[in-house]
Amino acid sequence: MSEPTYIIQKSLTGKITVYYECSACKEGLANPLSKAGESDKCPVCEGVHMVPGVTEWEGVEAQRIAAIEDRKAQIALGVEARRAQHAAEAEARRAAQNAQWHYEQAELKLSAISWSGTAMSVLGGILFVASIISFYTSGPNDLRGAITGAAEFVAAAVFLVGGGLGSALTKILRQLGERK
Ligand SMILES: [Zn+2]
Hints:
This protein is an alpha+beta fold. The chain has two domains: 47 residues, no CATH class; 82 residues. It is built from two helices and five strands. The strands form two sheets. The chain has a three-stranded antiparallel beta sheet with strand order 1-2-3, with no helix packed on it. A two-stranded antiparallel sheet has the order 4-5. Helix 1 runs antiparallel to helix 2. The structure holds zinc ion.
């Protein structure tokens, strides 16, 4: 049974039809291309024949499957790209939070040093005033008043130097931190 001559036409709606003649009675016949390769019976002479267009139908099917595979691959690529982007964003957020935490810790230490320096300076100032008062209120033979005044003066000097160092250290550390 030789395959008859045929033509294939695609309608505007995408329906593909194969047109051919009955090899026995030459009646014009038509089948959907999806029936290609199946056997059919001529309605006029009742001769059994195979619907032609197997190669074309296989090509149509191959294209359809390729399009589906292509779409699947595109979706997979998109999913992968989004996943990578989300991971990069999460990593950037973590890095920013980490940097912020380190900055806050450094700032806490700096303000502790700064506060200590200020407190020492204030205490030194009070002790200095107290030492002046002790010196002025002690009489010429008041050994105890002189010792108290001297002790207060030394303590005032220690606290003022300590306070000054604390303030200087805060300034230096802050400038070092800003330079980073
Ligand atoms: Zn026929």
